[in-house]
Amino acid sequence: MAVSSSFAGPKLETLLLCNNSSSTSSRASPSQIRILCKPARTRRTVFQRGVGLNPRCEVTSDVLVQDNNKIELRASSVSALEQLKTSAADRYTKERSSIVVIGLSIHTTPVEMREKLAIPEAEWPRAIGELCNLNHIEEAAVLSTCNRMEIYVVALSQHRGVKEVTEWMSKTSGIPVSELCQHRFLLYNNDATQHIFEVSAGLDSLVLGEGQILAQVKQVVKIGQGVVGFGRNISGLFKHAITVGKRVRTETNIAAGAVSVSSAAVELALLKLPESSHASARMLVIGAGKMGKLVIKHLVAKGCTKMVVVNRSEERVSAIQEELKGVEITYKPLTEMLTCAGEADVVFTSTASETLLFTKEHVKDLPPVVGNPRLFVDISVPRNISACVSELDTARVYNVDDLKEVVAANKEDRVRKAMEAQAIIAEESKQFEAWRDSLETVPTIKKLRAYAERIRVAELDKCLSKMGDDITKKTRKAVDDLSRGIVNKLLHGPMQHLRCDGSDSRT
Ligand SMILES: NC(=O)c1ccc[n+]([C@@H]2O[C@H](COP(=O)([O-])OP(=O)(O)OC[C@H]3O[C@@H](n4cnc5c(N)ncnc54)[C@H](OP(=O)(O)O)[C@@H]3O)[C@@H](O)[C@H]2O)c1
């Protein structure tokens, strides 16, 4: 008789779990065993709402035992929450955790708030540790750039995870939760995946397709390596985001002619300067890191051949001088910063200083620029120039949010380029989901195979011993093959079901 390989009855693994559970507790009654077989969702709800309110909401026979209408909560060293956290990753024994992003970006949040939320790279491992100590957070990553502060987590409960992370952000930044809630965006699972892929591709940047964001995403992975809490889902997500960022830049036009925050800063300064003074304006760049160097290069590209660069240390400036031999770059230490500012028409600041470099008092005392206010363009987050400086008639201050003015142009081009990239992002999101799914199904597949194999071998032994010793090798092999064939046919349907990544509509 032909045996159909499709599996139509109750889920085989559910039956197996019932079987396993019953064998672990001799005190579980048949009704309790039935409850044990409830889908994971029910069990999870029990943990969240508090065990003990309803005698039927049994979690496992180890946790709760019903005896003469009395509910006895078994003393267990591991809390229900801990059990939920440490239970094996298995899609039929545990509800899948969610990937959640809690973010505040340049699109939703002003720089005044973003700078309070910013976490320097050196602090990311500590932040990951603190986030993973929250009750409902399993894994975490921090993406803190001048454009965004985004926390990526794997949360046991979306609602509680978001609440805990928001409270943590409030504690670290000093911004009240209510204010954070007004500006934050929340994305879950597929939407969160798609978001980080778009971010990495430069689609969510102020300057479409800019390359720095991909470097920053890479930095998250580099710093996260070996940090407990930068777990396999989150690290997998960020590594996949790097692949997407590279693919989008090589397979589409997005990076063609792409500028950076630094070049936008230079554009903005030139926009604000009277055209007649473009060639003669005295330029001062404070900070010679990645951004400072780009500012210098864009100034050079715009025809500037002479400038002063102030930096904490001289090494980086020397390297830039070496690279840009035809340009007259004068190095000055930070101690001479105010004097240099007094001799400049335009001051760019791009340092990683946590404290202000220019206050209103500093700028008030600077000799004024003849004919025009002095321009300060600050692309640092946290900002290097106090917002109060803009109250002075002698100064105009622009920060990273003001760059929107120069990048808003070319909107149609942005939309077209973004559409090209979206097809790649959709394809990669699907692949990532399939990978994540496989993380959870592999243990189930292994367990199911091992369980079936144990039964097959036991039944085969029984059968062969009944047949006696005088059977031929050929008959022995035929019986063995028969047992394997039956098991494989029976498992085929459930295995296919477990392996599917949801892309097959028949499943
Ligand atoms: N990377 C980006 O894509 C990007 C984009 C837009 C804005 N920004 C912002 O631009 C700023 C600089 O970023 P970056 O990527 O250029 O960083 P970076 O490559 O790490 O360079 C940091 C710069 O800041 C200086 N610095 C560090 N601590 C300082 C302190 N306490 N006082 C004075 N100077 C200090 C460093 O001087 P030394 O050379 O002496 O170490 C160096 O010049 C940051 O605020 C960042 O948020 C970055």
UniProtKB/TrEMBL annotation:
<dbReference type="InterPro" id="IPR015895">
    <property type="entry name" value="4pyrrol_synth_GluRdtase_N"/>
</dbReference>
<feature type="binding site">
    <location>
        <begin position="287"/>
        <end position="292"/>
    </location>
    <ligand>
        <name>NADP(+)</name>
    </ligand>
</feature>
<feature type="domain" description="Tetrapyrrole biosynthesis glutamyl-tRNA reductase dimerisation">
    <location>
        <begin position="420"/>
        <end position="502"/>
    </location>
</feature>
<feature type="domain" description="Glutamyl-tRNA reductase N-terminal">
    <location>
        <begin position="102"/>
        <end position="252"/>
    </location>
</feature>
<comment type="similarity">
    <text>Belongs to the glutamyl-tRNA reductase family.</text>
</comment>
<dbReference type="GO" id="GO:0050661">
    <property type="term" value="F:NADP binding"/>
</dbReference>
<protein>
    <recommendedName>
        <fullName>Glutamyl-tRNA reductase</fullName>
        <ecNumber>1.2.1.70</ecNumber>
    </recommendedName>
</protein>
<dbReference type="Pfam" id="PF01488">
    <property type="entry name" value="Shikimate_DH"/>
</dbReference>
<dbReference type="InterPro" id="IPR036453">
    <property type="entry name" value="GluRdtase_dimer_dom_sf"/>
</dbReference>
<comment type="pathway">
    <text>Porphyrin-containing compound metabolism; protoporphyrin-IX biosynthesis; 5-aminolevulinate from L-glutamyl-tRNA(Glu): step 1/2.</text>
</comment>
<feature type="active site" description="Nucleophile">
    <location>
        <position position="146"/>
    </location>
</feature>
<keyword id="KW-0149">Chlorophyll biosynthesis</keyword>
<dbReference type="GO" id="GO:0015995">
    <property type="term" value="P:chlorophyll biosynthetic process"/>
</dbReference>
<feature type="site" description="Important for activity">
    <location>
        <position position="195"/>
    </location>
</feature>
<dbReference type="Pfam" id="PF05201">
    <property type="entry name" value="GlutR_N"/>
</dbReference>
<keyword id="KW-0627">Porphyrin biosynthesis</keyword>
<dbReference type="InterPro" id="IPR015896">
    <property type="entry name" value="4pyrrol_synth_GluRdtase_dimer"/>
</dbReference>
<feature type="domain" description="Quinate/shikimate 5-dehydrogenase/glutamyl-tRNA reductase">
    <location>
        <begin position="274"/>
        <end position="406"/>
    </location>
</feature>
<dbReference type="InterPro" id="IPR036343">
    <property type="entry name" value="GluRdtase_N_sf"/>
</dbReference>
<dbReference type="InterPro" id="IPR036291">
    <property type="entry name" value="NAD(P)-bd_dom_sf"/>
</dbReference>
<feature type="binding site">
    <location>
        <position position="216"/>
    </location>
    <ligand>
        <name>substrate</name>
    </ligand>
</feature>
<dbReference type="GO" id="GO:0008883">
    <property type="term" value="F:glutamyl-tRNA reductase activity"/>
</dbReference>
<feature type="binding site">
    <location>
        <begin position="210"/>
        <end position="212"/>
    </location>
    <ligand>
        <name>substrate</name>
    </ligand>
</feature>
<keyword id="KW-0521">NADP</keyword>
<dbReference type="InterPro" id="IPR000343">
    <property type="entry name" value="4pyrrol_synth_GluRdtase"/>
</dbReference>
<dbReference type="InterPro" id="IPR018214">
    <property type="entry name" value="GluRdtase_CS"/>
</dbReference>
<feature type="binding site">
    <location>
        <begin position="145"/>
        <end position="148"/>
    </location>
    <ligand>
        <name>substrate</name>
    </ligand>
</feature>
<dbReference type="GO" id="GO:0006782">
    <property type="term" value="P:protoporphyrinogen IX biosynthetic process"/>
</dbReference>
<keyword id="KW-0560">Oxidoreductase</keyword>
<feature type="binding site">
    <location>
        <position position="205"/>
    </location>
    <ligand>
        <name>substrate</name>
    </ligand>
</feature>
<dbReference type="InterPro" id="IPR006151">
    <property type="entry name" value="Shikm_DH/Glu-tRNA_Rdtase"/>
</dbReference>
<dbReference type="Pfam" id="PF00745">
    <property type="entry name" value="GlutR_dimer"/>
</dbReference>
